[in-house]
Automatic annotation (TrEMBL):
Protein name: Cytochrome P450
Superkingdom assignment: Eukaryota
Alphabetized CDD domains for the sequence: CYP64-like (cd11065)
Bilayer disposition of the protein: Single-pass membrane protein
PANTHER family linked: CYTOCHROME P450 MONOOXYGENASE ALNH-RELATED, P450, PUTATIVE (EUROFUNG)-RELATED-RELATED
InterPro entries: Cyt_P450, Cyt_P450_E_grp-I, Cyt_P450_sf, Cytochrome_P450_fung
Cofactor needs: heme
Organism of this sequence: Lentinula raphanica
Associated pathway: Secondary metabolite biosynthesis
Amino acid sequence: MFSSILIPIAILIVFRVFKALQRRSKLPPGPLGLPVFGNLFQLPTSRPWLAFDNWAKQYGPIVYLNIAGQNTIVLNSHKTAADLLERRATIYSDRPDFIVLSIITGGMHWGFSRLDELWKRQRRGAHETLSSQTAKDYFTYQEIESVIMLSQILADSEGFVDHFSRASTSLSLSIVYGWPPLLDSHHPTITGIDRFNADLLEAAAPGSFWVEFEFFKWMRHLPRWMCTWKRNAEESFVRNTTMFERLASDVQKELDAGNDTPSVVGELLQDTEKPGIIEIAWNAASIYSAGAETTAGQLAWFIQAMIFYPETQRIAQDEIDRVVGPYRMPTFADYEHLPYIRATVKEILRWRGVSPIGLPHRLNQDDFYEGYFIPKDTVCFVNNWSLHRDKELYGDDAEHFNPGRFLDIDGNVDSLIAGSKDEGHFSYGFGKRICVGRHVANNSLFIHIASLLWAFNIAAEVGRDGRLNFPDSLQCKEGLIVRPAPFRCKINARRMDIAAIVAQAKADRGIQPGRTERSI
Ligand code: HEM
């Protein structure tokens, strides 16, 4: 009697174990790891995309890693990334648990949150306020930022990186809260928001996120008196919730006073299914933090491209001179007539994207792909660095910066890749999680790049020995947003009257310190 129960149970267990082993043996290939720790110690803390690239050459387009028990795959080809993250987006769009981040944000930053109801609501709201059509409402903000950026570079060309950051921060504040342009990025409220952003980017950066994942999941249950990191993160959440709630409430006051300057928060507050103020506050914080530094970092890479590829700079300037001429700055009215500049935007995002391994996705059920078994909860990275160097897609000169690759025989912009949402590169990510701010980002890059090339010649600095000093374009400032390591260059006005034209544009737009800056 007893054995008649035990035998089927034993068969079932053996069958289950056999199945599990069979599935394990079908995991995608990857480097051999250590017992328990798996590949943890093989992961470089710096420039992981280069290690991923080497593994891709050795193991193929889909590489399996075991990070201390956490199943992880790295997708190294356009086909695998599109097959899984686009075509199977319903199961590949969750995010891993970011332990510290979820405390700092109370789980309400939807760029990092799980694929839950809150994410769905926040993303739906953002789709409306950042769609390709609504993004046009922000053209004026973006043109104004270009004018201010040029005037600041004319006064202090060495500080170009700071001027890009100011423009990015100021635009994000205008788009999210309807603020007038901000001329001084050292304002106390900006310092507060910047502090939040720095905490966030640090907690989400590769290197910190290797230890963030499931391996240390138990750490979240430690009592707060034992861990400073937990207390700091909790305090950060309280401080930031108060700050973002106040910023959102200020918009409500503006609306009540009859001021309906377009802004994301303004739209959300007027939504008929308006969520609570805390949810709106964190939706705004998510969009602000995702948009503030990305464009600035991308512009810094653009300056490097111009140093390395003077011939490309000349082609772009010829187009601007033909279409815009010397007497006024470029505007969005020139957009359709500047295909080479639009192609330059794509190419800079491809050549040196600020996000070489994107943000991790997580698979929410077991899956089989091309004979491989991919277990539920696997974390998926896309190695954009490798995808962007694929010679089959981009040609033999894929290593080089060449906007011309995005132009067809008639000179029209061609995205090259079916299924990349017409971008032609993968810097905005994939599937349900694709960057919701990409239309705004493309427009900002377009107007800033056109304006910079209209106004300046950008070149390598001449060293004391008379030789050109080129930066090392593989060196970078790492973090969630990857920027070039600090470098110097020459940015000179192309003509004598540039400063006067920019000053006139500033006056025409009513940009004056003190008058346009809101006292917060
Ligand atoms: C050069 C500029 C930018 C780049 C390269 C960039 C890149 C990215 C990437 C790689 C992701 C993750 C995609 C994925 O998981 O597959 C993302 C998500 C996101 N981006 Fe951007 N981004 C940029 C600018 C912006 C701007 C200007 C905004 C807002 C105005 C923005 C808002 C967001 C948001 C809210 C998410 C989270 C989406 C989600 O998880 O559902 N981004 N971005």
